[in-house]
Request: fold
Amino acid sequence: DAGVTQSPTHLIKTRGQQVTLRCSPISGHKSVSWYQQVLGQGPQFIFQYYEKEERGRGNFPDRFSARQFPNYSSELNVNALLLGDSALYLCASSFGGGANYGYTFGSGTRLTVV
Amino acid sequence: GESVGLHLPTLSVQEGDNSIINCAYSNSASDYFIWYKQESGKGPQFIIDIRSNMDKRQGQRVTVLLNKTVKHLSLQIAATQPGDSAVYFCAENMAERGYNFNKFYFGSGTKLNVKP
Reply:
């Protein structure tokens, strides 16, 4: 069985540009969450989507947005990129959307903003 | 691959020894905890979880202990192997009042270095 897949694996963008990251959850999982991991730190929650609806949002500016499609895949969009947006962006899927469901993480997309 | 633990606390152990990694969590309302292992260039990998109605849970070569009084978690790895070298994170899931969504707070991580 395929795990959580993310694309692209690496990306280099220029300040001010926009980026779209993609995630396909494990088959049968209906919830996708996005995390940002800055080098040397733990992952930080950005969004959770369940059944195509936003369930939760972390402390990130409105430049960050996401959506979930009918097949439960998801996209994370970041507008007006800043140097500080350089990080590993992790997607995690879980079967349910409620509290106390563990995640399975993908390998992430390494975004570098120059 | 690129390291995710350049400035993290590091625990160095000899192969075959037992390892203990500690974590202080932040919220007394947190009711579900997970330990993750992250190798260089990869996403976090689930190791073991524990709910707040338990004090101890054992898996294969791993044990998690939860002390709610002092908000402390520990991960014990028996007979540590070179393949255990990675960054280890504890994550707490706080059921926020009025919300039912899945949000984990991650600690800053501990780098485990296993010497052969």
Remarks:
- The longest strand of chain A covers residues 87-94.
- Chain A touches chain B at residues 4, 31, 33, 35, 37, 39-45, 48, 50, 55-56, 58, 88, 90, 92, 94, 96-108, 110 (CB under 8 Å).
